[in-house]
Amino acid sequence: MSKALEGIKILDMTHVQSGPTCTQLLAWFGADVLKVERPGVGDATRGQLRDIPDVDSLYFTMLNHNKRSVTLNPKTETGAKIFTRLIEECDVMVENFAPGAIDRMGFSWEKIQEINPRMIYASVKGFGPGPYEDCKVYENVAQCTGGAASTTGFLGGPPVVTGAQIGDSGTGLHLAFGIVTALFHREQSGKGQRVECAMQDGVLNLSRVKLRDQQRLAHGPLPEYSQHGQGIEFGEATPRAGNDSGGGQPGWILKCKGWETDPNAYVYFITQAAVWKNICDLIGRPEWKEDPGYAKPEARLDKIKAIFDAIEEWTMTLDKFDVMNLCNPLNIPCGPILSMKELADEPSLRNSGTIVEVDHPERGKYLTVGNPVKLSDSPSDVERSPLLGEHTDEILKTVVGLNDEEIAVAREEGAI
Ligand code: COA
Questions:
Q1: Which of 47, 82, 92, 195 suits a disulfide with 178, CB 3.0-4.6 Å?
Q2: pTM here?
Q3: Of the candidates 381, 391, 327, 326, the residue with the CA atom closest to the CA atom of residue 356
């Protein structure tokens, strides 16, 4: 079976997380990703958060599967020539250096286009054009400047960042979508183009329901926020909503049996209007089915907290999985809070290829997250990440066209 992006060559100048997430996705779909790394140094994450001395970190391995590694310093004379050849041979170049770094290497977008007019040049930056366009940005800066932090956390508490890497991996995902779209466009136009994604924009895109609420505030309070039911006034901006569902169906995180000692003995419970009667029966409050104070969603709005307290009395008697097993047949949406330990051990995720065990020559076996996007005709097996410069000679010979002697000279000059 062929892979969807087979035949596409990616000149991968990415580092840390956002860019590597993007090129890893493309590699899973079959693109040949040539990861360019600084000679003797490599992607900084190879050495960050190491759990085993002198072995590539999980931070690196889990973001760089299915790629080939070539060491190259485009700032040397020979390195610049090799880099130019790689631009000629590749379809897409991806980078997420600080603003201006690729220009400082001597490869502006104009020059790249001159070398290869079909090249798609994709970048992640912290901010788009504007006052902060020159700033360096990491994950939590993006979460804070993109609207996620101001709307996450509990009312009255400080802003909170989320564990999901919506700034880095989220922007990498956006960029991959932009690249594939530009490849599709190139089929008609015959030309490459620039693809840019700012982390602030990516986070804001993922927080768009909060901008929805910002505008709704101009027309009155937001009834689905539990603060409304508690009589707490809204301020000027979309508030932090705790564990409110964010949609039209109230939800909250409730304690389950064992919560006193297990930090993840909780369940997310949604009081979906269509199954209200099922909920009443399940938690032992059948009288609420017909009570005018509870029967209709609008009537329940000022009692949401008390209702969840009552549901919690019931969930606290049960294991979180039992809650789900009892709710599912009644169409009551809920989800146990799963720890990373539970996810790592979950057989269905292993079977679907979402959690994958990979063997690495230096670290041995480890777990990673496989491709979350499944294509029926384009399998994406996870292959271990490359060692630093593992494919340098191979790439210089087969892609760039150098011979052994030329490679030896380049190595002596420190270009590779
Ligand atoms: N050979 C020689 N030099 C190389 C090289 C190579 N193969 N690859 C990179 N370099 C150099 C670059 O030329 C640059 O040097 P310069 O600043 O002298 O021009 C430097 O290494 C890389 O710089 P930079 O990107 O500034 O690294 P940093 O570690 O200081 O900053 C980030 C890291 C992530 C903050 C920054 O890259 C950034 O803001 N990126 C954009 C936003 C982003 O993606 N952030 C999320 C990362 S997960």
A1: 195
A2: 0.96
A3: 381
